[in-house]
Write a structure and sequence with these properties.
Length: 267
């Protein structure tokens, strides 16, 4: 493959060490090409001639740190992805009519928290209800997309007609080909930036449910346990932690017990 910038295993290891230092994320060996593809855009944007030059710049320029993290954090999501979790959430809401707080701890471009918000609105039968939805991500650009709530119409059309009519406005003119989440639904979600590796979170104790799906796979097991202890400490007794389909915490039964379908309850 033709690569305009010199790129060896040495550069890849330097990037891998830097992103782990900043976020705790462990990049797999298979991410070699992804790292080149995403960071080469930063090299072009900044006018750097090599990865070594860029990494030296990164060490001395704190403003570039955010761009570096944004470039390397993977954001793959869709509305109602792993639908069984939202079915379980709907059942939970049926048996819990009081005030609730739900934290979506890796919200990416917003499809997951909006799916949570739609489920809550349907369960309560209205858009103004007693459920607080928090949504955080480490990637500031993804957070901006999430806050805007604008998506390609092809993505929105995968939802039922009833949901499209109730929760989205179809774009016209310059906005043709896109749809936007209605403001009443957007207003139900509080978006903010959060690094799960930090010692102290902006989220306060008293959470009922945490969605943190397909995130822990990027951390080694010791780091997983550290982060999970911090997160689970924020849950109410018998609160839920909802993980992704590729995650398994059977080695952490002292922290939480499995309830099936990658849903766990704090012990």
């Amino acid at each position: 493959m033709d690569r305009p910038f010199a790129y060896s295993h040495k550069e890849f290891e330097a990037v891998r060490q830097k992103i782990r230092q900043l976020t705790g994320i462990n990049l797999a060996d298979s991410k070699d090409s992804m790292v080149y593809s995403r960071l080469s855009r930063r090299l072009r944007a900044l006018g750097h001639q090599s990865f070594q030059q860029y990494l030296a710049f990164l060490d001395t320029n704190k403003e570039e740190t955010e761009h570096f993290i944004n470039a390397l954090t993977t954001n793959l999501t869709s509305f109602f992805r792993e639908a069984h979790h939202f079915e379980a959430l709907a059942s939970f809401l049926e048996s819990h009519s009081g005030p609730l707080t739900i934290w979506c701890a890796a919200c990416s471009s917003g499809e997951e928290p909006y799916s949570i918000a739609m489920t809550c609105a349907e369960a309560r039968g209205c858009l103004k209800h007693n459920i607080s939805i928090l949504a955080s991500d480490i990637d500031s650009k993804m957070l901006d997309k999430a806050k805007a709530g604008i998506y390609p119409i092809a993505q929105v059309e995968k939802l039922s007609l009833a949901r499209r009519k109730q929760f989205f406005h179809k774009g016209k003119g310059a906005n043709s080909g896109h749809a936007r989440v209605i403001p009443e639904l957007r207003n139900n979600i509080q978006f903010f930036q959060e690094n799960l590796l930090h010692n102290h979170y902006k989220v306060k104790p008293g959470i009922d449910i945490i969605f943190c799906r397909n995130v822990m796979i990027y951390f080694d097991k010791p780091t997983q346990e550290i982060i999970l202890k911090r997160m689970l400490a924020l849950l109410k007794p018998k609160g839920w932690y909802i993980a992704g389909h590729s995650e398994n915490f059977s080695h952490l039964t002292h922290l939480m017990r499995p309830m099936g379908k990658t849903i766990y309850q704090v012990v």
